[in-house]
Design a protein that fits this description.
The protein is an alpha+beta fold. 25% of the residues lie in helices and 33% in strands.
């Protein structure tokens, strides 16, 4: 999301030069993990149509997507929509898998089973917390989460999961049972974990 958000904000900033708190889920930027693999990215930013051209913005985004897909030789990223609504620009993209979302945006982002994340070397030393009570739990033989799904990133973003969120890291705030917001200290980033099933 970081790359595309920066692209959109840069575009809006350049256009403005030439021209002189969370709400509903539909009003916020987020990354949505679908049950069978695809990742949907939604970016919501302020947009003044009198200064900015939505068609130009869509063209710039599409150019980035085309370049990425041509390098892969397959259509792994799709622009689903780019529209202005009630003073905001809303961009939606679909990625074949989490790895494409990470590569396209040049960020660290993993989505898969805990066992897969462990085999890739991610650290599960914790601490982790029960999503609602916020009681600390240990990742050990008694609390084996290896068959759970997990999202791991060091970016500040909102993540919507395909199942109920059961455990998180300390810098993750539960918004509802399937949506969590990740906060990060820009000068001291750390891995954020969201476990769901």
């Amino acid at each position: 999301m970081k790359k595309l958000v920066c692209l959109i904000l840069t575009f809006i900033f350049l256009c403005s030069l030439t021209a002189c708190s969370l709400g509903k889920e539909s009003d916020i930027s987020m990354v949505q993990i679908k049950e069978k693999g695809p990742v949907i990215e939604t970016i919501v930013e302020e947009f003044d149509q009198s200064y900015y051209n939505i068609e130009e913005l869509e063209s710039v985004i599409q150019e980035d997507i085309t370049e990425y897909n041509q390098n892969l030789g397959s259509e792994n990223v799709k622009l689903l929509s780019c529209e202005e609504k009630e003073g905001k620009v809303i961009v939606k993209l679909e990625y074949t898998e989490a790895a494409d979302y990470a590569a396209f945006n040049d960020i660290h982002f993993f989505s898969g089973q805990v066992s897969e994340a462990m085999s890739e070397g991610y650290d599960f030393s914790g601490p982790f917390y029960e999503s609602e009570s916020r009681e600390e739990m240990d990742f050990d033989e008694e609390n084996d989460l290896s068959d759970y799904h997990v999202v791991i990133t060091d970016e500040a973003l909102n993540v919507s999961t395909a199942g109920k969120i059961l455990y998180t890291g300390g810098n993750v705030n539960l918004i509802n049972s399937k949506l969590a917001g990740i906060t990060q200290d820009i000068d001291n980033k750390e891995w954020s974990y969201i476990f769901y099933k």
